[in-house]
Amino acid sequence: MVTEHDLVTMSQILLAAETNVEAIPRLTERYAFDIEQAYRVQAFLIDEKIKKGMRLAGYKMGLTSPQKMKQMQVSSPVFGVLTAETLLEDGASLKKKKLIHPRVELEVAFVLGDSITPEDDLTPEALAKKIAYTTVALEIIDSRYQDFRFTLPDVIADNTSAAYYVLGSHFARLDDMKASLLHFGAQLWINGTLQAVGTPANVLGHPLTALASLVRQLHQYRGETLKPGQIVLTGGITEAFAVEAGDVIEGVIDHLGSVRIKVSE
Ligand code: OOG
Ligand code: MG
């Protein structure tokens, strides 16, 4: 059994891996810990970042599509924390050497207009009313584990591989749209080549279902609720792709616009 002290040590090992840009062996090879304890490690890690001056911007859901679950061999949706400091501007350049083995994902992002608690009606219809804006996002993930391989507790402890994220510059209102998000097409382009296609429906049947899952898990593992203005990434629509210096990556979702990032050395 792991002690409280072990959980803090694990968060420090993960933070050092991130700072030193150096992959580490999976923590589950050294410590036996469960999902609840993994979320405690994640919380210690985030507390440390907040102490250093970073600010909470929202949350990310991960492993919410069959495409991602299959690629990572982990089949439970998980959540992580987004900081304001890791939000890149649309069109920005990402320095590859700051990361271990970055991959890019195409996602739907929500900006909340209202708070959301587990007592609220969490059906997609009710949740849609609590969304201020919806846009397309790219997430840059970077597992701190060797070979980008992990078990469920490992990836939760590692803040679900969060590194950077970019939001599109077009903010759509779901209720202004005639068509349903579920019928929109999504495309990921790398260097002008269509790398993958999908639809927001890949994400647990509806990205708003991923939001509902976040509300429940956040309450269960953190005792927290969502607040207006927070950003929520709902999880990769397709599998993730390795990024290389020189790449120009563009995500497009019908009616939500596009988002772009350049990768430098
Ligand atoms: C875990 C994070 C997954 C997503 O969108 O599915 C994730 C990983 O695959 O490294 O962010
Ligand atoms: Mg993601």
UniProtKB/TrEMBL annotation:
Gene Ontology cellular component annotations, sorted alphabetically: cytoplasm
InterPro entries: Fumarylacetoacetase-like_C, Fumarylacetoacetase_C_sf, Hydratase-Decarb/MhpD_sf
UniProt domain Fumarylacetoacetase-like C-terminal: residue ranges: 71-263
Domain of life the protein comes from: Bacteria
Gene Ontology MF terms: 2-oxopent-4-enoate hydratase activity
Alphabetic keyword roster: Lyase
One Pfam entry name: FAA_hydrolase
The UniProt record lists the keyword GTP-binding: no
Statement: the UniProt record of this protein carries the keyword Cell inner membrane: no
Protein name: 4-oxalocrotonate decarboxylase
Provenance organism: Candidatus Carbonibacillus altaicus
Lineage of origin: Bacteria, Bacillati, Bacillota, Bacilli, Bacillales
